[in-house]
Amino acid sequence: MSTMLKLFAVLAVGCALSPAAGAQAVMTERNLSFAAAKAIAEAALDDCRGKGFHISVHVLDRNGNIRIALRDDGTSIHTFDASFRKAYTSRAFRTPSADWGKRAESQEPSLRQVPNTLGLAGGLPVKAGEDVIGSIGVAGAPGANGDAACAAAGIRKIEDQLK
């Protein structure tokens, strides 16, 4: 069979696929808008500033892409990287970064080898129902839950829009 005939045969088989198979090729996914990411980041920053803390904050979309990153005046040099890594961890594993850290420490130590992860408090998933549409990471607030509290304040800013 010539190359051209083979090509036509492949095209004919492709055209014979059911409409349902073609419909499955297109997906609709919910994602975090820039406006929502900005509102989350600014609310987290404002919450921490109100407590006297200077932080860095990252908000990622459902695919782990940075939607917004803020670094307050007076932050320590490590906070920018740490806030990204907390947000990335939370998005990648669909759980708070502190919970992932406990799991990696006790049950699955090999998880600590995953690049860009950090198992400290301050990374939270952003959910619309049960669908993780993004994440937030905060670094720079002192105490075991300082970062997580500011991150939660960021999410609360738009929680009525996440239903």
Quick summary:
The chain has 163 residues and is of the alpha+beta class.
Q: What this model shows, in words?
A:
- The model is unreliable at 3-18 (pLDDT under 50).
- A hairpin with a 2-residue loop joins strand 3 (123-128) and strand 4 (131-139).
- A four-stranded antiparallel sheet has the order 2-1-4-3.
- The chain is globular.
- It has one domain (34-161): Haem-degrading domain (Beta-Lactamase).
- Helix 3 (34-50) packs across helix 6.
- It is 44% helix and 17% strand.
- The chain is built from six helices and four strands.
Tell me the radius of gyration: 21 Å
- Separation of the first and last Cα atoms: 57 Å
How many structural domains in the coordinates? 1
| SSE succession | HHHEEHHEEH
The share of residues in extended strands comes to: 15-25%
Secondary-structure blueprint:
Layout: H1 3-15, H2 19-23, H3 34-50, E1 56-61, E2 66-71, H4 79-93, H5 97-106, E3 123-128, E4 131-139, H6 146-156
Antiparallel strand pairs: 1-2, 1-4, 3-4
Keyword list:
163 residues; disordered N terminus; 4 strands; alpha+beta; 4-stranded antiparallel sheet; Beta-Lactamase
